[in-house]
Amino acid sequence: MIEIKKQIAEALSAAAGGAIDAVAVQDALEYPPNADMGDLAFPCFRLSKVMRKAPPAIAAELSAAFSCPAVERVEVAGGYLNLFLNKAYLAEYVIGKAVFADKPYGSSEEGKGKTVVLDYSSPNVAKPFHIGHLGTTVIGHSLKKLHEFAGYHCIGINHLGDWGTQFGKLITAYRLWGDKEKIERDEIDELVALYVKFHAEAEKDDSLNDKARAEFKKLEDGDEENLALWKWFIEISLREYQKTYALLDISFDSYNGESFYTDKMAAQVEKIRAAGLLKIDDGASIVDLEEYGMPPCLILKRDGSTLYPTRDIAAAVYRKNTYDFDKCIYVTSAGQSLHFAQWFKVVELMGYDWADKLVHVPYGTVSIDGAKLATRTGNVVLLKDLFATAIDKSLGIIEEKNPDLENKEDVAKAVGVGAVVFHYLSGGRIKDMNFIMEDALSFDGNTGPYAQYTYARTCSILRRAGEPAAVAAKITTDEESELVKVLLRFPEKVKSAIDDYEPSTVTRYALDLCAAFNRFYHECPILNCEDADIRATRLCLVSATKNILGNALHLICVGTPEKI
Ligand code: ARG
Q1: Per-residue DSSP letters for 424-442?
Q2: Structural domains of the chain ordered from first start
Q3: What's the pTM value of the predicted model, to 2 decimals?
Q4: Phi and psi dihedrals of 201, rounded to 5?
Q5: 140 vs 190, residue with greater confidence
Q6: Are 342 and 309 in contact (CB under 8 A)?
Q7: Residue 170 has what pLDDT?
Q8: Averaged pLDDT of the chain
């Protein structure tokens, strides 16, 4: 609709003799609350000052002077000009863009020449990769795809938590209870078991924590044995993460984690000091942020070792120098909002003029069937188990619904993973969510499987009918017009998803599109429609739906099997 609105706005601006410019008209255009008030409405109130007339008189004047191929007729309603769009024109427009153009409908060049860095997923190595990471992983990747769709050059970074005291804990646990062969066999499961055991034992015996700190210190000082263990743990963890990323079809451009910045922090600490920002507080070095209503940002511990914010500051500078980003986006749970606000402020105070290009995108917590998750107690739902359950259940449903389907395993994978991701991305990101597997997997509800099933239906129609040819559109039913309207909305949904960093806008759009398509499918015969022009138009609408729905699902990291 963005372009159609633009056309209309230009025509209205011309009809007003230029008393208002087209951009202002476009911003003012409204969607009326019900269909008998038209498809769009222009409130004339703001023109009454410039044109020195009452709004109804202006509406009448515009209605006489206005002409635009996208609009069939206009009606004056008080101070509003109600616009009724030309259905066939709109259908031809969207079909042209979504079926016969060489670029996907909704994609743009808005971000041409601009680089966006996205920091997401970023699990803490050797800790479980659990359902809490679902948010950062899929929101982050979806934002990457959305930005790419809008023409930005994107760099996805997995800022691995590969440094810190947890390695001291793991090394200690390994030395005390570890079994090399067991780890080689069970890989991450065994590492997590050791990590969990460490916490259980340290509850009873605090000296274990001292041991862990000492092991980490040794690691920081370059102890070879500890370094080798550290590398080994990272390799094991990465191999594990890759399996989940492969399921989601996610890859990263960089895995530079926290350890990568070890030698890049001193220069930034010096810069903070030189700017007169560093204060000593109880032995630790901090930047006081009281003036900005925040607790101090910790830069160095008492023993001089660096902290999470120190690494983030060094990483931001490195990324700016390496990628010259126009935006650097961080996707983490809302629990880290203060952390980001603090160090963003420090970067600004350091005098970096790109501080305002750092964006934190927070999301709410996830619980499963009401249960809160805790990493340290071992009471966690691992992401891989969640996906495995979903895939398994999908396979069961497919066996039942469509026992003869080829590649059942692959389809079950796409449906199971898609169901989890779709369900997760269907609510606003900041809201806490309770994940219920049955809800995610239902084929009847507003779910991923339902959207994928609708997509497969469009594929099946086109398989039988063949790819459609261009037509002079013939629109005869409300269901067709409604579908056209929803199809047209895709570009603005993409734009608003990007502007608000909100993939759920696309998820909800996909559901609206499925609903409009399924109403059309049930009410309008397609393959056995007798009027050749109507049939051809309907096939084009099926094809447009297939392409737009497919792209919408792709943008939210949901697979699109052609047969289910
Ligand atoms: N590793 C952190 C965690 O799991 C997330 C890192 C986010 N990115 C960053 N640059 N701080 O909580």
Answers
A1: HTTS-TTS-EEE-HHHHH-
A2: 2-85 (3.30.1360.70), 115-261+316-377 (3.40.50.620), 389-555 (1.10.730.10)
A3: 0.93
A4: -70, -35
A5: 140
A6: yes
A7: 94
A8: 94
b/e 448-482 (16+ beta carbons within 10 angstroms → b): bbbbbbbbbbbbebbeebeebeebebbbeeebbbb
At 475, the amino acid letter reads I
- State percent of the chain over pLDDT 70: 98
Give the residues surrounding ligand 1 with Cβ less than 6 Å away.
119, 122-124, 159, 161, 312, 330, 332
Q: What is the pLDDT of residues 125-150, one digit of tens each?
A: 877 788 889 999 999 999 999 999 99
Q: Go through 427-438 and write b for each residue having 16 or more CB atoms within 10 A of its CB, e for each that does not.
A: eebeeebebebe
Rg (CA), the chain: 28
23 in Cβ contact with 12 (< 8 Å): no
3-state secondary structure 205-230: CCHHHHHHHHHHHHHHCCCHHHHHHH
Pocket test for ligand 1, best of 332, 339, 342 (most atoms within 8 A of CB): 332
- CA of 242 relative to ligand 1 center, distance in Å: 18
pLDDT in tens, 495-505: 999 999 999 99
Angle, helix 2-15 to helix 490-499, in steps of 10 degrees: 100
Amino acid at 495: K
Q: How far apart are the first and last CA of the chain?
A: 32
Confidence class of residue 371 from pLDDT cuts 50, 70 and 90? low
Other C-beta atoms lying within 10 Å of the C-beta of residue 184: 11
Pair of tokens at residue 261: 């910045």
Q: Which two tokens stand for residue 467?
A: 């790819």
Atom 11 (ligand 1): residue with closest C-alpha?
312
Written as six digits, the tokens of 77 are 């309603």
**Run of H or E including 151:** none
Q: Which two tokens stand for residue 322?
A: 């390496």
DSSP 36: G
CA dist., res. 377 & res. 195, Å (int): 9
Distance 159 CA to ligand 1 centre (A): 6
Which of 119, 120, 38 shows the shortest CA–CA distance to 77? 38
Give the tens place of pLDDT for each residue, 374-426.
444 455 678 888 899 999 999 999 999 999 999 999 999 999 999 999 999 99
CA distance 168 to 138: 30
